[in-house]
Amino acid sequence: MLDRRKFLKIGATLSTLPLIPSFVMGKNIEASKVSLGLVKNGEVITAAHWGILKLTIKDGKVVKSEPWEKITKMDNPLQHYTPDMIYKCRVKYPYVRKSYLENPDHPKPELRGKEEFVRVSYDEAIKLIAKELKKTRNTKGTSAIFGGSYGWKSSGNMQNSRILLQRFLNVTGGFVGVTGDYSTGASQIIMPYVVGSIEVYEQQTSWENILKHSKYVVIWGADPLSTLRIAWTSTDQRGLAYFEKLKESKIKVICIDPVKTETAKFLNAKWITPRPNTDVALMMGMASHLIAKKKVNYEFLQNYTTGFDKFKAYLEGQEDGIKKDVKWASQICGIDEKTIKNLAEIFYDNPTMIMSGWGMQRAHHGEQPHWMLVTLCCMLGQIGTKGGGFGLSYHYSNGGVPTCKGGIIGGISAGELGIWKNGKFKGLAKANQTNKGAEWLQNSAKYSFPVARIADALLNPGKTIDHNGSKITYPDIDFIYWVGGNPLVHHQDTNTNVKAWRKPRTIVVNEIYWTPTAKMADIIMPTTSSYERDDITMTGDYSNMHIAPMKQAVEPIAESKDDYVIFSDICKVYGKDVFNAYTQNGKKAKDLIKEYYNSALKQTKNFGEAFATPMPSFEEFWAKNEPITFEPSIESLEWTRFTDFIEDPILNTLGTDSGLIEIYSETIKKYNYDDCKAHPTWFEPIEWLGNANKETPFHLITSHPRNRLHSQLCHTSLRDTYTVKDREPILINSKDAKKLGIKNGDLVRVFNKRGEVLAGAVVSNDIMQGVVRLCEGGWYDPDENGLCKYGSANVLTIDMPTSKLANGNISHTSLVGIEKFTQNIPKVTAFKDPKTL
Ligand SMILES: Nc1nc2c(c(=O)[nH]1)N[C@H]1C(S)=C(S)[C@@H](COP(=O)(O)OP(=O)(O)OC[C@H]3O[C@@H](n4cnc5c(=O)[nH]c(N)nc54)[C@H](O)[C@@H]3O)O[C@H]1N2
Ligand SMILES: Nc1nc2c(c(=O)[nH]1)N[C@H]1C(S)=C(S)[C@@H](COP(=O)(O)OP(=O)(O)OC[C@H]3O[C@@H](n4cnc5c(=O)[nH]c(N)nc54)[C@H](O)[C@@H]3O)O[C@H]1N2
Ligand SMILES: [Mo]
């Protein structure tokens, strides 16, 4: 059973609380006027992606950081480094790059990332941003202003930097945005064609069902013990607790992954090692075997799917003369024929839940693996049952943890578009009005492009690309405003990306730390961390388990300001009207936080007397310094994905063209793409072990780092626990290392035609031969020749789309060479401040 925590009967315990001043209880007080002051000595509750935290404060400094509740035996080290998140690597003042300050019209963009910064006053910086933004808008139009600003920012529904930026760019006249994301670029586009929903961000069959009904759990290309350390809002931590229960159960676990992951080790799983990017072939071999063995649920295929016959013809070689049988599959994926057959039969003979991660769809032709997985699962016929089928989000944000009955808080919105005439603000466009603003809104959709095409777009304005059945023409971007993300680290092929980032006239970044992206800016605004401001968040993403106060713990560091304040202040330069539109007539952060809380409160009041978790007033909640915990309902504990469709496929059709699961898509056929056909297809990736050569014999996998959130926390002393000779660790098989004369702890150079990085060798049998793993998110640290001294994986990856359908990134597809580094060892400088004047 779920760890049922004691109910938080806040109302009942409130009277014993001495710390609430009586005025707090009064009605109709503006929240921003209710200040309890900062705690100088004591404890404060806040939250981060890595969970609800309890911070201990001594003499106004955070000295300790722990999880607010201990749910599992596993430690989550990300929770302990809050002091470093406040005090290390901070951007303390506003800065402007020297040439930009001297002449913003000829700012020498080729010097970005190399040149000194000049410290300026906050007011000067604000005025400069407003002036240059206006200039770009007037001379180049709205399509020259990029506000896509992808990134994981910090938790919090109010201080949501990306939305705050977009709200600001909207009110000042609009911007160019992006579609999709880096996480599930391929799957979120293909899945709607296949099952009518995106799947990747959806609640999964309840863990309670799995523990009761599954005989096998297959973890296919996922490392939930690592990736469940965080969540988009804030983790409720229950996903890890369920994996602990899985370990205690009799359920057998199989991990299919080139790496023996932490999860595989923890669960004592059977480890199957396909060559990277060949899972589609492996699944096709299994499918052929099931057909040969007559272990196919034809009734399921008949009732719930369309197009199996055409796919079967492809398997049998009727399209291309190649039989995709077990032998064929084995030659491609490197797994012996017997194992492929065994796996297929185990899946068919037992209630089997296949949990797939997303790494394998962040690969060339990344649309195929999950499409093929669904096809295989249709043949097994277990979709919609309590212990079988597939799930694409058990490894992420605690999918499968039952949804709680409670209130859901509101959040800041991107707002409405400002209408301007002859440089004057005329008010806000309402989305449903057919005025000029709404027109732009429609046009702006035309200018947004798939997020992972950013470098391509910057380098090739006006280029037209195919995307998901339509054509997109890149805008001519000349002004970038980035907040809450680290694109110089997160985007593929860093050397090309750096060239792209030297194209626009202006780049403004709000950052907390001197990240590689901050160092590439023209104007850098020092931003508070979430520990220096008030906010509020839910946890769990799917479970909606808690409402957590995120209380300011310390004073802002140096001259750092909240994103909300920075944007409000730029709006002021535009005029009072714009400021009022942005801030809803001067609302402070705390007023908005109270509004968001109250929208949840209102929902729970409608549940009536019987509701188990009554919410107190905002003022009581805030003063109490404790999260609210909601409880799951009986229905959600027993919830099964796809069950309605399975019970009645005619009444509860899927959102696909046919209403059924589409193994063959007539719509995709009409697109007539050479790189994404009408049914799951095996395509050779651009780089894989099948075309490895002497120069670059290894397939590089760039998994998500267990001890960071991407690049976040890289600058903390947690880094000291995993680096090798100060560098990002690279996992290499012992036999491969021996051949190359590389020993555990050696400094190595990893390279290909796109770039080179230094890394520290971790020699191990936890990775298959021919594959190396360098996790994404290491801070890019180029020397004068472009060698990354720290080991940022994207220096080596390919900046190419998955296909014309989804245009996702392919960060798990690339070949590299690796050798012992024998030259003079350069010092890592990624975590040092840039040169300033
Ligand atoms: N090779 C390779 N590359 C990958 C991936 C991969 O698997 N392999 N994965 C991709 C995926 S799935 C993702 S999601 C991306 C992640 O890429 P990002 O989301 O860009 O990575 P983060 O390191 O989380 O960057 C967040 C930044 O926001 C800053 N920040 C935090 N809070 C605030 C705030 O309140 N205000 C402001 N102004 N800034 C703030 C942080 O300091 C940090 O620099 O990486 C992608 N890149
Ligand atoms: N601690 C921590 N947790 C995180 C994140 C983080 O940065 N740190 N990032 C979060 C985000 S934004 C996202 S999008 C998710 C990402 O979640 P995922 O996309 O699932 O994570 P990855 O690490 O990219 O890949 C998962 C596994 O796939 C394996 N793999 C790679 N290529 C292949 C292949 O071709 N075939 C097979 N079978 N396996 C393959 C890798 O070895 C790895 O073990 O994680 C989230 N959780
Ligand atoms: Mo992601």
From TrEMBL:
Q: Name one GO biological process term.
A: anaerobic respiration
Per the database entry, which stretches of residues form a coiled coil? none
| Membrane-spanning segments | none
Q: Which residue intervals define the domain Molybdopterin oxidoreductase in the entry?
A: 90-573
Q: Which SUPFAM superfamilies match?
A: ADC-like, Formate dehydrogenase/DMSO reductase, domains 1-3
Needed cofactors: Mo-bis(molybdopterin guanine dinucleotide)
Q: Which Pfam families match?
A: Molybdopterin, Molybdopterin_N, Molydop_binding
The family assignment reads: Belongs to the prokaryotic molybdopterin-containing oxidoreductase family.
Name of this chain's protein: Trimethylamine-N-oxide reductase TorA
Record lineage: Bacteria, Pseudomonadati, Campylobacterota, Epsilonproteobacteria, Campylobacterales
